[in-house]
Specification:
The protein has about 425 residues and is α+β, with helices and mostly antiparallel strands. About 70% of the residues lie in helices and about 10% in strands. The chain has a six-stranded antiparallel beta sheet with strand order 3-8-4-5-6-7. Strands 1-2 form a two-stranded antiparallel sheet. The chain is rod-shaped and about 190 Å long.
Length: about 425
C-alpha cells in the first residue's frame, strides 16, 4: 500500500519535474537578457541625457552668438548713418570753405585796389594831401581818423577772412579724419559680422547633428524598452506555467494520497469487521488526522497526511502575505501559514520559523516527498513535489509557488508523522 501511494505521488511529481527545469533554464536566460538590456537601456538614457545637456549648452551659445550678431549689425547701421552724416558735413564745409576763400579773395582784392590807387597817385603824399586839404581842425581830425579807420577795417576784415578760411579747413580736415576712422570701424564690424555668421552656421549644423544623434538614441532606447517588456512578459508567462504545473502536480498528489487513504481505510474496515471493539477504536484513530503532541510532532500521523496537507495548502495560493498573520484566508506569514495548514491535520506547530525547524524529525532532501517542511534561515515552506514549494513568500508575492524548492540556502527538512 505504501509503495502504491509513493508511486502515485512520484508519477504526479514527474509530470512537473520533466518540464520545470526546461522552463527554469529559459527563465534564467531571459532574466539574464533582461538584466543586460536594462543595463544597455540605462547607458543609452545616460547618453541621451549627456547629449541633450551638450545640445542645450550649444543652443545657449547659438543664442549668445545671435545676440552678438544683432548688436554688431545694429552698430554697423549706426556707423553707416554717422558716415553719411559726416559726408554731408564735409560737403557743407567744402562749400563754406569756398565762400570764405571767396570773401578773403574779395577783401584782398579791395585792399589791393586802394593800395594801388594810393601808390599810383603819390603814395603817402596823396593821403597827406587829402588830410591837409581839410578846411579846419575838426575836418582835419575827421579826415585823419577816417584814413586810420579805413586801414584798420581792411586789416581786420582780411584777418577775419583768413581766420575763417583756416577754421573751415580745420573742420573739413577733422571731418575727413573722422570719416576715415568710421569707415575703418565699419570694416572691422563687417568682418566680425562675417565671422559670427560663419560660427553660427557651424553651431547650427552641430545642433542638427545632435538632433539626429538623440533621435537615434531614443529609437534605440524605445527598442530596448519594447524588448525588455516582451522578455518580462515571457518570464511572467513561464512563471505562471510553472505555478500551474506545480498546482496540477499538487492536486494530483493530493488526489493520489486521498485515493490511497480511501483504499487503506476500506482495507482497515474489512479487517475491523473481524475484530472486537478495540479494533474498531483503532480504525477510527487511523482514519482521522492525528492530534499533535506538545512538542509539535506526531507519532501516529496517517500515511496520507503529506498529500492531504499539500492539497489543503495549495487552495490558499494567491491569498495575501501579512506579517505576523496566522490565517491564510485573510493573510498569513510563512510560519503562520505552515502552522495553520498542519493544524487542520491535528499538528500544533509553533508560530515561529525557528521553532518549527525543531519539530518532527529531520530527513535528507533526496528523500523528500510532498508534505515535508523545508526550513530556511528565518523562513519555512511546504514541499508540494516537482521541485516546488508553496509558502507565504512576501508582501509582493503573497502565498505562491516557488521553484526550485531549494531556491535559497536551507537549514533542515522536517517530516511530521
Amino acid at each position: 500500500m505504501k509503495k502504491s501511494i509513493i508511486s502515485l505521488i512520484l508519477t504526479a511529481a514527474m509530470t512537473v519535474s520533466l518540464t520545470v527545469p526546461v522552463m527554469a533554464d529559459r527563465e534564467s536566460d531571459l532574466q539574464a537578457a533582461v538584466a543586460a538590456n536594462n543595463s544597455a537601456l540605462a547607458a543609452t538614457r545616460d547618453t541621451i541625457d549627456q547629449k541633450t545637456e551638450e545640445q542645450n549648452a550649444l543652443k545657449n551659445e547659438i543664442a549668445e552668438l545671435d545676440s552678438q550678431l544683432v548688436t554688431v549689425m545694429s552698430n554697423i547701421d549706426v556707423l553707416k548713418n554717422d558716415i553719411s552724416s559726416t559726408e554731408e558735413q564735409i560737403v557743407q564745409k567744402t562749400e563754406d570753405l569756398k565762400v570764405a576763400q571767396s570773401d578773403q579773395d574779395e577783401q584782398y582784392a579791395a585792399m589791393g585796389v586802394r593800395i594801388q590807387y594810393i601808390y599810383e597817385n603819390g603814395g603817402n603824399a596823396s593821403w597827406l594831401t587829402y588830410i591837409f586839404q581839410a578846411e579846419d581842425l575838426s575836418d582835419f581830425l575827421n579826415r585823419a581818423d577816417y584814413t586810420r579807420q579805413l586801414e584798420d577795417y581792411d586789416r581786420e576784415m582780411l584777418t577775419n577772412f583768413m581766420a575763417t578760411v583756416a577754421e573751415v579747413k580745420d573742420i573739413k580736415q577733422n571731418l575727413e579724419l573722422n570719416k576715415a576712422m568710421l569707415e575703418e570701424e565699419e570694416v572691422s564690424l563687417e568682418e566680425q559680422q562675417a565671422q559670427l555668421n560663419t560660427l553660427l552656421e557651424e553651431k547650427k549644423v552641430a545642433s542638427a547633428n545632435y538632433d539626429q544623434e538623440i533621435a537615434s538614441l531614443q529609437s534605440e532606447a524605445s527598442a530596448l524598452s519594447s524588448k525588455i517588456a516582451e522578455q518580462n512578459a515571457e518570464i511572467r508567462r513561464i512563471q505562471e506555467e510553472k505555478a500551474e504545473a506545480a498546482r496540477r502536480a499538487a492536486e494530483e498528489a493530493a488526489k493520489a494520497a486521498e485515493a490511497a487513504a480511501a483504499q487503506q481505510a476500506a482495507a482497515q474496515q474489512n479487517t475491523a469487521s473481524n475484530n472486537d471493539n478495540g479494533g474498531q477504536s483503532s480504525q477510527q484513530e487511523s482514519s482521522q488526522p492525528a492530534q499533535s503532541s506538545s512538542s509539535g510532532s506526531s507519532s501516529s500521523a496517517p500515511s496520507a497526511v503529506g498529500g492531504g496537507v499539500v492539497g489543503y495548502a495549495c487552495q490558499f495560493v494567491g491569498n495575501p502575505y501579512v506579517w505576523g498573520g496566522s490565517d491564510p484566508h485573510t493573510g498569513a506569514a510563512c510560519s503562520g501559514f505552515v502552522a495553520y495548514v498542519f493544524g487542520a491535520y491535528g499538528y500544533d506547530l509553533p508560530h515561529s520559523s525557528g521553532a518549527i525547524a525543531g519539530c518532527g524529525r529531520g530527513v535528507y532532501y533526496s528523500d523528500i516527498p510532498p508534505g515535508d517542511i523545508i526550513c530556511y534561515p528565518g523562513h519555512v515552506a511546504i514541499y508540494v513535489g516537482g521541485d516546488t514549494v508553496v509558502h507565504a513568500a512576501s508582501e509582493s508575492q503573497g502565498i505562491c509557488y516557488t521553484s526550485p524548492a531549494i531556491y535559497r540556502s536551507y537549514t533542515t527538512i522536517r517530516r511530521l508523522g
